[in-house]
Each structure stands twice: as C-alpha cells, then as structure tokens.
Design brief:
globular, 5 helices, homodimer, about 180 residues, five-stranded mixed β-sheet
C-alpha cells in the first residue's frame, strides 16, 4: 500500500509518501514540506496548501492519506490553524475518493518508537532507521509526516479488522428473506 | 455590496446573502443551511460543505464572503469541526479571488443588536427587522449567517479605513527617488 502522511500546519505542512506492507521493509518515495507565508491572508494560505497537497497527490498517487488528528489541548491559535490545514488535506483526499485515516500524535509515536510519549528526536531517528535513510528528514514536520504514513501502514490491518467487526455488528440479526421471482 | 455570510459548522453550515451599503435599507437575496450527515466520514462531510458553498457562490455571485471567526473557548470537539468547516468556506472564497473577512460572534451581535452579549433570539429578531422579513429565519445558523453579512456591510467602511492606515504606516518614510529616463 502507498500512503501519503500529512502533518498539518499553516506555516509548514509536512508531507511524506511511504510504500509497503506491515512486516516487510518499507520504502520512502518522497518527503517535503508545503509552506505558506505567515503574513498572507488566511484564505490565500489555505489555497496554497490545497495546491501543494494536490501536487503531492498528482505526483505520487497514494491509495491512502493519513492525517494527524488535531487536539485542542495546546496553544489555541496554533490549533485553529492546524485544524484548518488538516481540513484542506482531508478535503483534497476525499474529493478523489481516497480513504482518509486520522492518527493521534501518541498513536504515531507509539507505532514507530514503542512509546506514545517519545521525543521528536526519537521519532526522527526511528523514521531514519525504518526507511533506511542517510539522515533524519528535516524539518521535524517532514519526519512526522513519514511517521504518520508508517503508522498507517502498520495499523491498517488492525483497523480493517475493527471496521469489519463494526460492520458485522450493524447487520440485522434476523436474516432478511430474499424474494425470488 | 453583495456579501455571503457563513456561520460554519459540520452538521449545519448557515449561509445567507445580503445586498446593500451602510446607512441604506438592506436586502436579503437568499438564506439557507448546508447540512452534512453526522455519521459520514469527516472527509466526505468537508467535500459536501465545499459543494454546498460552491453552489451558493455560483448562484449569488457575492463580492465578499464573511465568515465567523472561530474561538477555542467552547467545547473542543465542536470547535474543531467549526474550524474545519470554516476552512472550507474560506478556501472556496479565496480560490475565486473573493476577499474573506472574519468577524467574531460578539462583533456580529454588537453590530446588529447594539450588544456583544445579545441572546440568539435577539439576533434573530433584529435580522428579521433589518431585512424586513415576515419571520426570523430558521434554524438559528441561517439567521446568524445573515447577521454576519449585515455586520460585514456595516463594518466594511471602518475596516477599509483601518487597512488604508496600516498600508500607509508600512510605506517608507523617506520617499524613494524615481529614476527618470
């Protein structure tokens, strides 16, 4: 599976594409950052992010998009911008019919380092090792986007089983009799 | 001036179009709500909001879009959804080159009722009176969208003077000598 990870942000939106399946070596296809000038109008910045994400989707044609789930516990101003940038990323993906998965920062950290409370540097080090890179991708937002994509590849089998269980639970217990003509 | 007001929300996104200038009777051109099902995927809901806003922009061709400025002081879950819906509205407007203005809930209330702490019902009553409607628009999100548009029409002259003052303050004090050929 090919996954585009997006670490949303208005000033720096990390993007990274990883290909692979759980239990096999993973391959990085691309990594980068979509930047927007902090003195631009908010609407303009969102348009720039949309254009950037569209370019990544066009270039790498991922089958899944994994976006960091935004929480409101941090700085209010930053969180609003992060929520808005993540909305644009999800919109771009859903418009193409791509499944969008949200993972929390601690799910991502736990997936790549084994600890949900790992430091930034530890995440960067593990991303570097898992993707067999020469050095940790910079800035941290780029490394985080790759970590998101890796997290999605590794969590996907479990998430699929969960979705199937939910779907099974929703189907009616009494079988509906089929009308045969 | 013709303004589309947007009261952002994932489940109900209020939209209202008002035409007029400060100091003259205002005219409502349209009012409604863009709805998305709460059990749909977040990405799908954002796509539905985008489609809805685009329809309103196509139908009414506003010159300005006024969106409620989102704060994080309320319920965390709701605020994230509101921020994401507002991002889609701003994106749609900015993509067409339309100026986007943000007004806080208290600025809107103060503009239409005289008090920044007015109740919902009071805002509805004033919107009904100012636009000479037979009854307050329902749901409240629709009335709030019209109040946003009215607020923008009335605040626009003051905001323009403010922007001009800022622009003037940014220009260099020492005049740059023009080179004449």
């Amino acid at each position: 599976m090919r996954v585009l990870g997006v670490d949303p942000g208005l000033t720096r939106c990390g993007v990274g594409v990883v290909e692979g399946v759980a239990g096999r070596p993973l391959k990085m296809l691309g990594v980068g950052v979509v930047r927007t000038p902090s003195d631009a109008e908010l609407g303009e910045r969102l348009v720039a992010i949309e254009r950037g994400i569209e370019e990544w989707l066009d270039t790498y044609r991922p089958e899944y998009v994994a976006v960091e789930r935004v929480f409101s516990q941090h700085n209010v101003r930053t969180v609003m911008g992060t929520a808005q940038a993540s909305a644009v990323a999800m919109l771009c993906a859903a418009r193409r019919g791509l499944p969008v998965a949200l993972h929390t920062p601690s799910e991502v950290k736990a997936a790549v380092t084994g600890s949900g409370r790992a430091e930034k540097a530890q995440v960067g080090a593990m991303v570097t090792r898992l993707l067999r890179l020469d050095a940790p991708p910079r800035p941290a937002d780029a490394a985080d986007a790759l970590a998101l994509a890796i997290c999605h590849i590794w969590r996907a089998p479990a998430l699929n089983r969960l979705q199937q269980a939910h779907a099974a639970a929703r189907t009616p217990r009494i079988p509906v009799r089929k009308v045969t003509r």
